[in-house]
Design goal:
about 130 residues; alpha+beta; about 45% strand; 7 strands; four-stranded antiparallel sheet; rod-shaped
Length: about 130
């Protein structure tokens, strides 16, 4: 009788063990970032602005880099594989050959979505 109970206990243990390991693998470990670009004067979202996001690693020249343009709502969305402190640089090219800039930083947390706002200054640069 003891042998049957012991065998059943071992069988139950080894059948439940893989479920414990594989269920923890389903968690999302990416870090998500939404950059909202707004105009300094009007506080309105700016579409078509070029956004660069990057993180420099102090131990090497390797860095996370993502770039793209804001959508109609003034948002650029991306993700990173690890939590990080990300620098953001936004540039809006103007028809007269000049451009406007905005910068920011944000700390990303594993499995979380951070929304940060970057303000385009009114200063026009050439």
């Amino acid at each position: 009788m003891k042998k049957k109970i012991h065998s059943f206990s071992l069988l139950l243990f080894f059948s439940l063990l893989p479920m414990a390991f594989f269920s923890s693998c389903d968690s999302d470990t990416n870090s998500y970032l939404d950059v909202l670009v707004v105009d300094e004067a009007t506080k309105a979202p700016v579409s078509g602005a070029y956004v660069e996001t990057y993180q420099f690693n102090c131990n090497s020249s390797d860095y996370n880099y993502r770039a793209g343009s804001t959508n109609a709502e003034g948002i650029f969305s991306t993700y990173f594989l690890n939590p990080a402190i990300i620098s953001i640089q936004v540039r809006l090219n103007l028809e007269n050959g000049g451009y406007r800039m905005g910068t920011g930083t944000v700390r990303l947390i594993e499995g979380d979505t951070k929304t940060t706002q970057v303000v385009l200054t009114n200063e026009i640069r050439f």
